[in-house]
Amino acid sequence: MTFDQATLAGAASAVTAAAHADDSAALYRAVMPPAGTATPPDQAAAWFGSLLLRLALAAAAGSELERGCSRQAVSDWIGQVLGALPTPALLRAQDPGRIDHGQAVRAAADHSRCREYAVDLIRVGLAEPDDALDERGAEALSAVTGDKQMQLTVIKTLGRLAPTPGRRG
């Protein structure tokens, strides 16, 4: 399934603006497929996959990373832009009465996994034109489109890494 490129570009810009503003309500509106909640599951998956790739390409283009750079270079850049991943202790400290240690450990692992998926998706945008598709990028796209919470987290991460609408890098 393909989508109108203007609609997809508008959604990517809205996601980027919402992610930079840390506006969860705007982010949820921005990621919604054009047909809203009436979108059949297969079309919704295609929409989210297209949006993820568009955001990954925007993040790659807005970075100062070179084509074909290593996973570590992409990971380091993301760390510089977004800061360190949250630790279980930091996550638990946000609401110690509600978040137990096990939940905090799982949440920290989820954050780490989402960041790794973002690395793999951005590397798709940094591949040399003649390179074969990196299997890790394809696996990341498949994993992220199959998990709604992970989808939103990775979309928000990529939106924060992409340049804000109207500026590059």
What does this protein look like?
- The chain has 169 residues and is mainly alpha-helical.
- It is built from eight helices and no strands.
- Helix 3 crosses helix 7, helix 4 (71-82) crosses helix 6 (101-126) and helix 6 crosses helix 7 (135-145).
- It is globular, with a radius of gyration of 16 Å.
- The two termini are 30 Å apart.
- The model has no long low-confidence stretch (mean pLDDT 90).
Features:
single chain; 169 residues; 69% helix
Task: Give the overall shape.
Answer: globular
Mean pLDDT across all residues, rounded?
90
Secondary structure: number of strands: 0
**Series of secondary-structure elements, N-terminal to C-terminal:** HHHHHHHH
Looking at how many chains there are and whether they match, the oligomeric state comes to single chain
Number of helices: 8
What class would the helix/strand composition place it in? mainly alpha
Strand content: under 5%
Rg value:
16 Å
Instruction: Give start-end ranges of low-pLDDT stretches.
Output: none
Question: Brief description of this entry?
Answer:
The chain has 169 residues and is mostly helical.
Write the layout of secondary structure elements.
Blueprint: H1 5-21, H2 24-31, H3 41-62, H4 71-82, H5 88-94, H6 101-126, H7 135-145, H8 148-161
